[in-house]
């Protein structure tokens, strides 16, 4: 009986609070990370040979791993101010929990004009060993290659010219120019998108995987399949192709 | 309105107090008993680089729980004929593995997998235990061997009855869990608490990272080979200087067999794409854990290195990180192999196997 009275009192108190002078002026934002191959959804169910893809060069390939890092997400308000999220997200297509980021920071309701984010980490954030969860995920990029963290690991198999299956490990991070000389290799994205946030909002960040092989460099897996991390040319081709990989998809409230 | 809020605040507070103090559960008279908390001692290198240890909310570490778990771990009482303890196949001197390719159970039967070493379990990021990932927690893992017919070959009903009629155990369970009514779940919880205390992070390489020790030029060169994608490329699955677990805790087919006979993870998930995948073991304490691989096929570290260097064979689910498979691997030079081995051995921690807190208390 005491417990019932307690619950009643608690419910009444909560309702009382809501009816008080607290007017909702902020909203929760969720970022949803989706992947597609030229428009067709790519999920873990497509991995390990369940689906084959043909890249721009015409090479048939499968995917067994796709992990990538997004950081520095910002929402831009119509009044010129910016909402900055401290979060970073290691997306692993085989881990559904990683496909959504729910920042603790809430955003003011109102008019917004765009969203920006970083693929990978920028120089300031790409510090070797600085993130325990990424360390535990073995996401580190070797110090001999500039250190910090991987930006992406995409792996699988492709058919070579003889029809034999070969492995590829399309791993992206800081580019090593020469011994001890490194070049930043992340990508900043800034998308204009007018949206009125009036309540809790979900924003889709899309990756078109096919773009990694397409534009401007037509990727040849027969040339660049493995041992790409220390390969400066391959790292820069990845960087250049990455510019057309991401887009903003559905925004729902 | 403020007065109303204050009134409800007082009301809620008083009800909380009333609920907690005057509503004892009549089933368990020891509900209020709290064993002595004993948080894990997190080593400095883990504190610096890794997330906090993963302790389940329903099985906190306690002095009494760990003591009970330690006694159980070394006590053959859990086996069908009272001859075999957890420690029979998980010996401290072997980093809690044993020296056999396949361990032998109480009936003289061999298993099909190599006994896994036990350490740093609270940092197992994927919560998948056994070589094939079939247990989802350490507690669940600890339940397995007692009833396994090629291991301890007992029933839990019988094991619990033996514990219940023992002179010391009922009181030890009472001190650990507030009840002397022994169950298999509480037994597994106690063993899991002890296992979580088995922390190894004091190898020469750890001391080097902490600035407390140095490595030989050969060991340092071996580390470079380990981290070089075109030579060892060990780090993608086995950690690195910023990921000191020395495992990714994930599952891979590392090119051992052209025809998969032991499906490993695939047997558990039913997914043929998981056939031949096994959990990456940590590279700590290799000096004590021979033989190697899920089936203990390699007696020495040299054989392991030779496998990755020139012994890889293709199968459908082989991990893409196994490279140059058509040539058997990347063909390290003999000098590189020797240096890599020297580095690997610098991850062995003799203070771990000699830790008095981890030895047989019985």
Automatic annotation (TrEMBL), chain A:
It comes from the Bacteria. Keywords: Signal. The keyword Signal applies. The keyword Chaperone does not apply. InterPro entries: MbnP-like_dom (IPR046863). Residues 1-19 form the signal peptide. Residues 28-218 form the Copper-binding protein MbnP-like domain. This is Copper-binding protein MbnP-like domain-containing protein. It comes from Aequorivita vladivostokensis. The lineage of its organism: Bacteria, Pseudomonadati, Bacteroidota, Flavobacteriia, Flavobacteriales.
């Amino acid at each position: 009986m005491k417990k019932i009275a307690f619950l009643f009192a608690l419910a009444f108190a909560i309702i009382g609070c809501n009816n008080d002078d607290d007017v909702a002026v902020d909203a929760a934002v969720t970022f949803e990370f989706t992947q597609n191959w030229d428009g067709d959804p790519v999920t873990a169910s497509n991995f390990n040979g369940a689906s084959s893809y043909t890249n721009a060069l015409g090479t048939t390939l499968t995917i067994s791993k796709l992990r990538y890092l997004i950081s520095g997400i910002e929402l831009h308000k119509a009044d010129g101010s910016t909402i900055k999220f401290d979060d970073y997200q290691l997306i692993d297509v085989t881990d559904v929990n990683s496909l959504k980021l729910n920042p603790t920071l809430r955003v003011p309701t109102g008019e917004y004009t765009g969203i920006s984010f970083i693929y990978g980490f920028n120089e300031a954030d790409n510090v070797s060993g600085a993130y325990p969860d990424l360390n535990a995920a073995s996401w580190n990029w070797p110090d001999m290659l500039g250190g910090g963290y991987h930006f992406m690991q995409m792996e699988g198999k492709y058919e070579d010219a003889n029809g034999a299956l070969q492995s590829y490990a399309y791993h992206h991070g800081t580019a090593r120019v020469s011994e001890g000389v490194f070049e930043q290799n992340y990508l900043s994205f800034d998308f204009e998108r007018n949206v009125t946030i009036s309540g809790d909002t979900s924003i889709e960040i899309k990756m078109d995987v096919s773009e990694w092989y397409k534009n401007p460099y037509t990727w040849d897996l027969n040339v660049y399949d493995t041992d790409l991390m220390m390969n400066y040319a391959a790292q820069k081709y990845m960087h250049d192709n990455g510019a057309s990989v991401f887009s903003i998809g559905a925004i729902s409230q | 309105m403020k007065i109303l809020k204050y009134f409800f605040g007082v009301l809620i507070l008083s009800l909380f107090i009333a609920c907690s103090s005057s509503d004892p559960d009549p089933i368990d008279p020891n509900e209020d008993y709290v064993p002595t908390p004993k948080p894990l001692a997190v080593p400095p290198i883990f504190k610096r680089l890794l997330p906090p240890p993963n302790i389940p909310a329903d099985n906190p570490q306690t002095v009494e729980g760990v003591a009970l778990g330690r006694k159980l771990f070394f006590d053959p009482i859990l086996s069908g004929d009272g001859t075999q303890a957890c420690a029979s196949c998980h010996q401290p001197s072997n980093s809690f593995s044993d020296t056999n390719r396949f361990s032998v159970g109480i009936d003289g039967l061999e298993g099909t997998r190599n006994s896994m070493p036990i350490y740093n379990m609270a940092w197992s990021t994927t919560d998948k235990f056994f070589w094939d990932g079939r247990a989802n927690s350490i507690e669940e893992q600890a339940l397995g061997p007692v009833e396994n017919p090629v291991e301890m070959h007992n029933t839990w009903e019988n094991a619990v009855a033996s514990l219940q009629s023992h002179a010391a155990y009922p009181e030890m369970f009472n001190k650990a869990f507030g009840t002397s009514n022994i169950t298999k779940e509480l037994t597994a919880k106690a063993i899991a608490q002890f296992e979580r205390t088995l922390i190894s992070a004091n190898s020469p390489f750890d001391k080097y990272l902490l600035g407390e020790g140095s490595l030989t030029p050969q060991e340092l060169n071996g580390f470079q080979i380990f981290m070089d994608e075109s030579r060892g490329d060990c780090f993608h699955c086995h950690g690195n200087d910023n990921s000191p677990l020395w495992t990714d805790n994930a599952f891979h087919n590392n090119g051992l067999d052209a025809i998969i006979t032991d499906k490993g993870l695939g047997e558990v998930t039913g997914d043929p794409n998981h056939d031949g995948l096994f959990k990456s073991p940590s590279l700590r304490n290799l000096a004590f854990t021979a033989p190697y691989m899920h089936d203990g096929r390699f007696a020495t570290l040299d054989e392991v290195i030779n496998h990755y260097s020139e012994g890889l064979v293709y199968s459908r689910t082989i991990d893409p990180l196994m490279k140059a498979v058509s040539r058997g691997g990347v063909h390290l030079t003999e000098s590189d192999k020797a240096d890599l081995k020297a580095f690997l051995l610098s991850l062995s921690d003799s203070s771990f196997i000699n830790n008095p807190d981890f030895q047989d208390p019985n």
